[in-house]
Protein: MFS transporter
Amino acid sequence: MNGNDRSIVGLLMVAHGMVHTYELSIPIFVSIWLAEFDVIGVAGLEFGVTQATLGLLVTAGYGLFGLGALPGGVLVDRLGSRRLIAACLFGMGGSFFLLGVAPDLLFVTFALLLWGVAASVYHPAGLTLISKGVTERGTGFAYHGVAGNVGIGLGPLLTAVLLLVFDWTTVATVLAVPAVVAGLYAVRAEFDETAAVDAIGADGGVDARSEGGVDSLAEFVTESKTLFAGAFVVVFVIVMANGLFYRGVLTFLPNLLEGLPGFEPVPLSAFVPGVETGGRTLRPERYFYAGLLLVGVAGQYLGGKLTDRFPAEYGIAAVFALLAVLALAFLPVASLGIVPLLVFGALFGATLFTAQPLYQATVADYSPAGTRGLSYGYTYLGSFGIGALGGAVAGGVLTYADAGTLFLVLAGFAVVASTAALYLVRRG
Structure:
């Protein structure tokens, strides 16, 4: 990669890591909120806190994370990526400061909504910047994905470690600081955002794929129709199914693991005998969850490299077929004991994140550069907006059915994505 590539990828690795640090720390807090809060009051009414109700509240924040990606994509095409990335980082830091002073679950919900709005602009801004500014696009996607997975794994791990010493509100406040520092770094970053776009056509004119953007509602409708008139609609189905699977399996994963053999809480005093620990315990499920996410680094890197060597549609079909099998095997493997589950968790985590660089590259293949921000906006509307419903689905299934039913539903989402990718392969 050249100097401009490295400057862009360096900034995006920091920012992407921050986004997913916060995103995947939230499920660890979910298990605490389930134990700490009994009711949530709204407009004078009180509702009991269950996995179903809490799933809906978390889905609201995660939903804005995805829904805001569409207007965020429009803004990227008009304003550029750097300013939006800086605003995203400052906004996420502010929302976690608010989370740190939350007196009740309603205020927690408000802070999560603010986080969702702030974080929503990142993916269309960051991915557009790679697709238009980085000459080695596949490698850029790979490093970008690796950094995201470092945040995905180390964020929950850091949260779990901090919870050994502090209460959850203090931990939320501490976590807010890195985003503010990263925002200051983003403000000072300098690079050419469109260095990789070949704007000069063979006839000396401007390549239409490098122009575009949305200046009005009419243009928004026109560009959207252009995107969805072709195979992009199939890509959109893939990213929706991915989002439903991703959010459905991760939102309550720490809570699901609590009841499995080998995940019993361990008193902290067992590790520091003779020292007063205030009755605090080490929760193994939090570390398994963080480890499963961290091994996704390998999957992200593999998926990114595969996009430079093979058609992404083939990879997507294979990865989601494997995820369907792994979802059905999760509980049977868990019944064999913690050691087989650790090995299985590593495979599951790596496979879960291999798909992301593949579908990100596919979006670039099925959209013009001039509206790349809009296309990634739709992508994360589907993946993190509509996909956020996976958390509500998971909460509802766990409240009114059981974990076996949940993994069956998740396998269904994966089959839909694999089938859609096979359609793209056959379509050519």
Observations:
- The chain has 18 helices and four strands.
- Strands lie at 39-42, 45-48, 266-267, 281-282.
- The longest strand covers residues 39-42.
